[in-house]
User: What shape does this take?
Amino acid sequence: MKRRNFISMLGAVPVFYTINKYDKFNLTNKKVRSNNMSKFELPALPYAYDALEPYVDKMTMEIHHTKHHQAYVNNLNNAVTGTQMEGKGLEELFNEISKLPAAVRNNGGGVWNHNLFWKVMAPNAGGNPSGKLGDAINSAFGSFEDFKKQFNNAAATRFGSGWAWLVVSNNKLVVTSSPNQDNPLMDVADVKGIPVLGLDVWEHAYYLKYQNRRPEYIDNWWNVVNWEHVSKLFDGAIK
Ligand code: MN
Assistant: This one.
């Protein structure tokens, strides 16, 4: 076979996806290509930019996805390319994030957290969780309303930029929050666990519509929570 033909055959090798225990829902969106180069990519939004109106506005969604999330992806690729970290999955990096450069912590968290965030929201969603997840919330927090109070409080009182989380920690549901783009999978987290629901409380997530009124953004956000997806994450995280 001529060398040129052989090379063009290599070019046709399909993209392989890495699988690990957190990657069932393709949150890491890491693709390993046939040339062994590894790149993180911006996932497509699973709905239109205006689909979460009026609770989350179109312009916020568009800037959040195409500018903020894209920047985390680009900066993460720049931070890992050509280093020992290249080719590793995000969860693998999070396990030892305290020993890695700040650019990997900030942008790796930014990529993973937003991958989750888009999926735990949907149009025509909201309401109350049912089934196994609904039961687990009632048993952990007393009632859905009590859970919401605790989550809202974590989101509203997170000083500066950060995230509120519902996580499975030691096989139990727990509410926690984290600063910046940290998350509960990181070795630096106050409460470690597997996130099943996350809320972005950076100002870029709400300021265009809500300005300084973070509690109003949080209250309205419950109308777009995709409990079907949160339930799947819960089923995957609980033993
Ligand atoms: Mn954000």
